[in-house]
Design goal:
The chain has 735 residues and is an alpha/beta fold. 44% of the residues lie in helices and 13% in strands. Among the domains are: 86 residues, no CATH class; 93 residues, MutS, DNA mismatch repair protein, Chain A, domain 3 (Orthogonal Bundle); 224 residues, Rossmann fold (3-Layer(aba) Sandwich), CATH 3.40.50.300; 39 residues. α8 packs across α21, α12 packs antiparallel against α14 and α16 packs antiparallel against α20. The longest helix has 27 residues. The chain starts with a helix and ends with a helix.
């Protein structure tokens, strides 16, 4: 946690407790003037003391209610009795509003203010539970620090992680949405299938070319929400105006591309793009910006310039400004020729080279006189002239002749700029009328970017679509680890068959699918990789992604993904490594349900062998116990068998037939090991790892016992005869 908070892209700030008070938080939510969604609920809340406020746009369909009606409406949508959640939301809103009020505060000037468009309630019953230990153990995210210690990069580099290999997004908000998808796996079959259908749409052969075109369009989309915020504040730059126009144009291209997809009518995201991307309004945004702003001249003059023919008065001013050179030349002749007798030689031979007129914005028309290089004084000064300023080679004066020009033409450049600012402001007001449309387009575009990312990952890595079912099963055919397969020349595929919430086997029970798989085997034989592989496939299925497995893979809906794989030690935690392992197991056992998946790798290795084996045996007995078989034993929460995968080296738990010594509770468990091949002829060749999951039998246990005896003899031989250490070294490395 501390590593997250101290990373370069996060700012940690402690806020006072009164920011989290629930009563002010409710008022902050009501102050957002969120509409009373009467059209959604068919209910219109009103009380005698209400004050009805019309919408700013003057529409009749949108009204906002103050006083108790707004509170009743809010209470109908949000459980305001949850004071902790309400208080936290109010603290976040207060902080966001504080940032918005600052012109140049904590946020950089390019980031703009903070836009709060809506407040939504996140229902945790619709997401799969996954904690930070699971995220770390499965390498779902993996931040890498910048090689330069003094780097000021705002976002850490993503290392080798599941998010890193699946992230093919090309937009900023698409990247953010994909990260939220990874942090909130779905626990709803319709929503998961909806994402899978969208991914399948863009993977169809006839749609691949269109998907590539849409991806190209997305690459040209900028961070429109921040740009719109700058536009509202009047800080939009020329590049941001172009970005808005480009966004509207690319949305039109995306809409045209999606409308030509085959079988797009059955996919929600495609239908939503067609309905959300209002073609007429997007064209209107493009026309407003394209018809008003001259991007070429704006780049030259380093300001926003309005195109000709937009405003007749502005065109006349620009015509006068363009002809100012002739006017200055005529005025200079009228000023210089009468002063020729007053010029000293050799300046009197060319008075127009000594006396000239110039136009300086905000100062108007001026007379420019050359300075004498010896005295650094003007070569001539008329008594009616008023000195204004002096440069390195010239002095500037106000003369009666140029004062007349000021009165006639005024400050042309300033007048032109002011008029262009007015026109651009009118365009800004018109564009902002479509801000809600563009924000909605950004939301749909972000989802489209994520779907295309999953589709591209599935094509690149040869993933297949899993079947999400209500049955509490995990049926994986030829599963692969999504990260390890990218780092080895070849990867050995393995199957998985687990069923949770199954009662104790009986004589008439034909279902042999276990609820727990207990795995053992030699070190470096692939046990941990297999455990993580199954967990990652289940996880990927719940974010709507395709999985590294063969067709026919079926994943039952899983509400929690809990692991005890990696010990996260830190000096900030006042706990030993063994205590951290116990805390992870304790949390898992408290919240386990029949639909949960528990992955445990070598639990109990942090203490002595006897205690470690006892702890693992107790864990196995607890996981394999089905309290529903003893419904009369008491009241309270009854445990059902969850889906579990465990790996261990504690062979003391097995009897001679390869079953657990747990008093007959091994009926719902399967015992497997990672197959290895031992060269019995030449012991120097050691072990060949086959990385294949096979059932555990008595032959394996006999081989383990023989290996332990051989290892013991080798140790004794080294102790008695140290000279033989090289001859027994291969034996010591086998297990």
């Amino acid at each position: 946690m501390l590593e997250r908070l101290t990373s370069t892209d996060v700012r940690l700030e402690v806020r006072p407790s009164h920011d989290f008070a629930p009563a002010p938080a409710i008022q902050r939510i009501l102050s957002l003037r969120t509409p009373t969604y009467a059209c959604d609920r068919g209910v219109d809340y009103r009380t005698p003391d209400d004050v009805i406020i019309e919408d700013d746009d003057g529409g009749d369909n949108m009204r906002f209610f103050s006083s108790s009606a707004s509170l009743i409406d809010l209470a109908a949508r949000v459980n305001i009795d949850k004071e902790v959640s309400i208080g936290c939301a109010g603290a976040v809103m207060a902080y966001a509003q504080r940032l918005t009020a600052l012109d140049n505060g904590v946020l950089p000037e390019t980031a703009g203010g903070v836009r709060i468009s809506s407040v939504e309630v996140l229902n945790l019953n619709t997401v799969m539970f996954i904690n930070s230990d699971t995220i770390c153990s499965l390498q779902i995210f993996q931040d890498e620090t910048h090689p330069n210690f003094h780097s000021t990069a705002t976002r850490a580099k993503e290392g080798l992680s599941l998010f890193g290999i699946l992230n093919f997004t090309v937009t900023r908000f698409g990247h953010q949405l994909l990260k939220s998808w990874f942090l909130r796996p779905l626990f709803s079959i319709p929503r998961i299938v909806e994402r899978q259908d969208a991914v399948a749409l863009f993977m169809q052969h006839e749609n691949l070319e269109i998907a590539t075109t849409i991806k190209t369009c997305l690459k040209k989309v900028k961070n429109i929400p921040n740009i719109l915020t700058n536009l509202e504040m009047g800080k939009a730059t020329l590049a941001e105006w172009r970005a808005i126009m480009e966004f509207a144009y690319q949305c039109l291209r995306i809409r045209n591309g999606v409308s030509s997809l085959a079988n797009m009518q059955d996919v929600r995201i495609a239908r939503e793009i067609i309905t959300t991307f209002a073609a007429d309004q997007l064209r209107r945004v493009c026309d407003i910006i394209h018809d008003i702003i001259d991007f070429d001249m704006s780049r030259i003059e380093n300001r926003i310039v309005v195109k000709p023919t937009v405003d007749d008065a502005l065109d006349e001013l620009k015509r006068q400004y363009d002809s100012i050179e002739d006017l200055l030349r005529q005025t200079a002749r009228r000023v210089a020729l009468p002063l020729t007798p007053l010029l000293p030689p050799p300046y009197n031979t060319s008075p127009l080279e000594v006396i000239d007129t110039a136009y300086v914005p905000q100062l108007g028309f001026l007379v420019k006189v050359t300075l004498n290089p010896v005295t650094n004084e003007p070569v001539v000064i008329h008594q009616d002239w008023q000195f204004r300023f002096q440069t390195e080679g010239h002095a500037f004066f106000k003369a009666p002749e140029v004062v007349t020009l000021d009165e006639m033409y005024g400050d042309l450049y300033a007048i032109i700029c002011d008029r262009e600012i007015e026109i651009v402001h009118e365009a800004q007001v018109e564009v902002l009328k479509f801000s809600n449309l563009m924000i909605a387009c950004c939301r749909v575009t972000a989802e489209l970017d994520c779907v295309l990312s999953f589709a591209e990952a599935a094509i690149v890595y040869k993933y297949t679509r899993p079947t999400i079912t209500e049955d509490n099963v995990i049926e994986i055919h030829q599963g692969r680890h999504p990260l390890y397969e990218l780092n080895v020349p070849s990867f050995v595929e393995n199957d998985t068959h687990i069923r949770g919430d199954r009662p104790r086997r009986s004589d008439h029970d034909d279902d042999e699918t276990p609820s727990l798989v207990l795995l053992t085997g030699a070190n470096f034989s692939g046990k941990s990789v297999y455990l993580k592989q199954v967990a990652l496939i289940v996880y990927m299925s719940h974010i709507g992604c395709y999985v590294p497995a063969s067709p026919g893979t079926a994943i039952g809906l899983t509400d929690k993904l809990l692991t005890r794989v990696k010990t996260r030690e830190s000096v900030a935690r006042d706990s030993s490594a063994f205590m951290c392992d116990l805390q992870q197991i304790s949390l898992a056992l408290q919240i386990l349900t029949a639909r949960s998946l528990l992955v445990v790798d070598e639990f109990g290795k942090g203490t002595n062998v006897v205690d470690g084996a006892g702890l693992l045996g107790a864990l196995l007995e607890h996981v394999l116990t089905d309290d529903t078989e003893n419904e009369g034993d008491g009241e309270g929460r009854r445990q059902r068998r969850c889906k579990a995968l465990m790996a261990t080296h504690f062979h003391e738990l097995f009897d001679g037939d390869g079953a657990l010594t747990l008093g007959g509770k091994s009926g719902a468990a399967a015992f497997m090991h990672m197959r290895v091949m031992v060269d019995k002829v030449d012991s120097s060749n050691g072990i060949t790892y086959l990385y294949k999951l096979v059932p555990l039998g008595p032959c394996f246990l006999l081989r383990v016992a023989n290996s332990i005896q051989a290892r013991t003899r080798s140790f004794l031989l080294v102790i008695w005869h140290p000279v033989h250490i090289l001859s027994v070294f291969p034996v010591l490395l086998r297990y």
